[in-house]
Amino acid sequence: QVHLVESGGGLVQAGGSLKLSCAASGTIFNIDTMSWYHQAPGKQRELIAIIDAHGGTDYADSVKGRFTASRDNAKNTVYLQMNSLKPEDTGVYSCYILAQPTMDGRRYGYWGQGTQVTVSS
C-alpha cells in the first residue's frame, strides 16, 4: 500500500509564493512520474505540472514560468514551488504518482488527499 501526504497549502496574497510537498510512503520499489493537479472552485481538475524519474518537467501554460516542480527520489517526495501567485490559482492542489510497489513491473496510480491554496487579491 502506498500513501501520499501533502503539505504546504494555505492563504497567500497575490504575488506571493508557496511551496507544496507530497511525500510517498509504504511499499515502493520505484516511482516513475510525479504530477500536480489543480482544481479551481467549480471547475474540473487539471494537470499543471509533471516531472519524470530523471527530473524532466512539463507544465500547463497557465503556470509556465511561475511554478517549478522538483523531486527528491531519496525521500520519495515531489515539490511544487509556486511564485507570482494569482487569485485564479486558488483551489485544491493534489499530487499523483505512478509507482511500482514491487519488482514485478506493474505500475499503479496513487493520489494525495489534496491541499487548499487560497490567493487573495
How far apart, in Å, are the first and last alpha carbons?
Answer: 41 Å
Query: What structural class do helix, strand and pairing data support?
Result: mainly beta
Mean pLDDT: 96
Largest sheet, in brief, is:
7 strands, mixed
Helix content: under 10%
Beta content: over 45%
Count the helices. How many? 0
Low-confidence stretches: none
Question: What is the overall shape?
Answer: elongated
Beta strand count: 11
- As a whole number of angstroms, the C-alpha radius of gyration is 14 Å
Helix-strand topology string: EEEEEEEEEEE
Secondary-structure map with pairings?
Blueprint: E1 2-7, E2 10-13, E3 18-26, E4 30-39, E5 46-51, E6 57-59, E7 67-72, E8 77-82, E9 91-100, E10 108-111, E11 115-120
Parallel strand pairs: 2-11
Antiparallel strand pairs: 1-3, 3-8, 4-5, 4-9, 5-6, 7-8, 9-10, 9-11
Task: Describe the structure in your own words.
The protein has 121 residues and is mainly beta. It has no helices and 11 strands. It has strands at 2-7, 10-13, 18-26, 30-39, 46-51, 57-59, 67-72, 77-82, 91-100, 108-111, 115-120. The strands form 2 sheets. Strands 2, 4, 5, 6, 9, 10 and 11 form a 7-stranded mixed β-sheet that branches. The protein is elongated and about 50 Å long. It starts with a strand and ends with a strand.
